[in-house]
Amino acid sequence: MRFGLVHRLMTDALAALGVLAIVSTAALSPWTNALLMIGLIGALLIPERWQSRPVLRHLASAGPLAIFVIQAARLVAGRPMLDVSVEFAALLQIVRLATRRGAAHDQQIIVLALLHFVAGTVLGGGLTYGLCFLGFLVVAPGALVLSHLRREVEGNYRQGARDRTGLPVDVPRILRSRRVVGRGFLAATCLISVPIFLFTATLFILFPRVGLSLLLLNHPRPGRMVGFSDRVDLGDVGALRTDLSSAVALRFDIPDLPDPRPSRMVLRLRGTAFDAYDGRAWLRTQTERRAAERAFPGSDLYPLVRQPDGDKDRKATFDLESLDPPVVFLPPHTVALHVHLPSQPLLNEALTLQRGPEGEVRYAGESARGLRYDVYLDRERNPVTEILSPHDRARYLALPPSLPSRIGGLAHAWTDGLPNDYAKAKAVEEKLRTQYKYDFGSPSGGTKQPVDHFLFESKRGHCEFFSTAMAVMLREVGIPTRNVTGFVGGTYNRFGRYYAVRQADAHSWTEVYLDDPVHPGWHTFDPTPPAGAQPLEETTGALVYMRDLVEALSQRWNRYVVGYDLRTQVHLFEDATRQYDRFRAQTGLNRGVLGYLTRAPVVAALLLVAASVGYIIWKRRRRGGKSGEKLAPKTPAEKRLESAAALYRSLDGALMAQGIARPAALPPLAHAEHLQKNKHPLADEILALTQLYLEARFGGVCLTPEATRDFERRVRTLRSTRPEPPDRSVSQPPAAGSATRA
């Protein structure tokens, strides 16, 4: 493998990983990310021979300044400082890659890549950053070593160094050499990443954690979900199922489900509800919110209906991603909510829950970037009794004055003669489910009266048309209703063992108030045909398999690495302690004196003492081995080389005594030839002794004891000789650079 090629590849890989790490942690626009990736690929593809062209030289000088001016102007124009800084750092690396010349620039590239990873750590990287960091650990040792070697080669060339034949160092030949870098070298440098990773992971787990979330400057921009704001135009929620990607909105897990678990689960996760319809959009007439009551001060438990019963209630775990508005989604029959709070931040506002109108629950504070919570469900599914006041009843019966009268006529035609409100609601639900088609592309959304057009003209639409039509028709016959938005369920992730609810699973249904004599209250009805009232994401196929794997890894990374805080650390040590105590109980090590000696603190102290004693013993043995070790007998060739080197050291000392010392970077033969060229009185003797040394050192000539004594005698004579002062016109011994030029 060629030295120059391997060095370039490893440096390029390190730079690319650094740019990917910083770009993946910043919430840049897709266009910006695409342009940065195109620029990075273009810079990596520029041939090394082009990088000495005048255009790239000018780019190397003016490029960073131009980027700084442009990014400063964008910052003044109102662009977020974080985005501007990330773009500047990535562009600076791209310019350096495109215009690099030599090892000095390669070291700048490595330093920039390291700074990119430091910035990515502060910004709070996700799974992509984690993969880039692992690549960095593997590539960085080799890139650093090769960069240092290349810098030494180029530095020796600039200083006029010569090889053993006396010729100048040929840098291009060394870069093309296949003898410098081999498979063993690459394997050894890459394996250095293993102890580095283990040491880093140990520090990460053991180092005390505090609330440093203020360092997470890159708070991800929450996904905007229009279906949960205070106004929703008819058609918006249904459009979510086609316009949004398959980004995960939340994950949930219900422990006591049967195995194998169904690939899809229909579970209406209620987000918010609306009480007023103006003919085109759903609104909320009441927007006041209040702090949710805790079970007791400082508790993370919030009773919504009653206190949870651990023996009777069913518990489900939810992991909510960052959404705007920050609505908490709850399944049917929820009685209480338990929030998993992270370690409290130092400066930012702590998390709080708020109760809003129409049974809505929201969260706010530092953890507004997402929420983990447990939901307690009533196994008996007892309805919640709620008495509707005359004022509230009027709100849920209000209709826009412009509503066409034939909607009311159709409602009466479907419900007149039925015995009660429940039968009427079921009749309308069944008619809509069976006589109308579920369709994303309904033309009714663009009409003046969308519900009327849906019922009598198009007879097709998405979920919001069905729920709105049912709510309006039941109000026409005197039954209070409201429109609800949320999610319809999720698809099972076999790797993470949870159900993933995606933004495209947004759904709308209807809640009907029934005057039940025993339990009056709100009841759920979903008039959307079954084809549209379930998660629409695919559950089979190779792409689905890879998607589930990546999403499960990302979820684990965010929870156990990015979200690793003091509370998680304490739980980790508590779990380890419990597992160790269970092991002691099962093996009988917890009895008597042995039980005391096997306690976790005692074992940790003993291990620490044993490690210290072992290190001291190893250190002493190593020191004693070095001082008392017997050297292996030297070969004749080694003796010859050592003897020749000693002879020239004595000659070097004589030259220094005569005031004509050889420069460190100048080969012996070149120095002797220079003295002869300038007619130094001792030049002939110096040249003769130098040639004799070179023959013994590199020519394979073995000096006899007589020849060695003769060499030493001539050196002593040379040292004691006092030649006449040299002519002032004779130049002094050359410096390294001048010898190279000669």
Structure notes:
- This protein is an alpha+beta fold and 742 residues long.
- The protein contains 24 helices and 20 strands.
- α6 packs across α8.
- The C terminus is likely disordered.
List keywords for this structure.
Papain-like_cys_pep_sf; elongated; membrane; single chain; alpha+beta; 742 residues; 20 strands
Oligomer: single chain
Radius of gyration (Å): 40 Å
The helix content, as a percent range, equals 40-55%
Got a strand count? 20
Mean pLDDT value: 83
Low-pLDDT residue intervals, each spanning 5 or more residues:
211-217, 728-732, 735-742
Report the principal-axis shape: elongated
Instruction: Specify the structural class.
Output: alpha+beta
Please report which band the strand proportion falls in: under 5%, 5-15%, 15-25%, 25-35%, 35-45% or over 45%.
5-15%
Largest sheet report: 10 strands, antiparallel
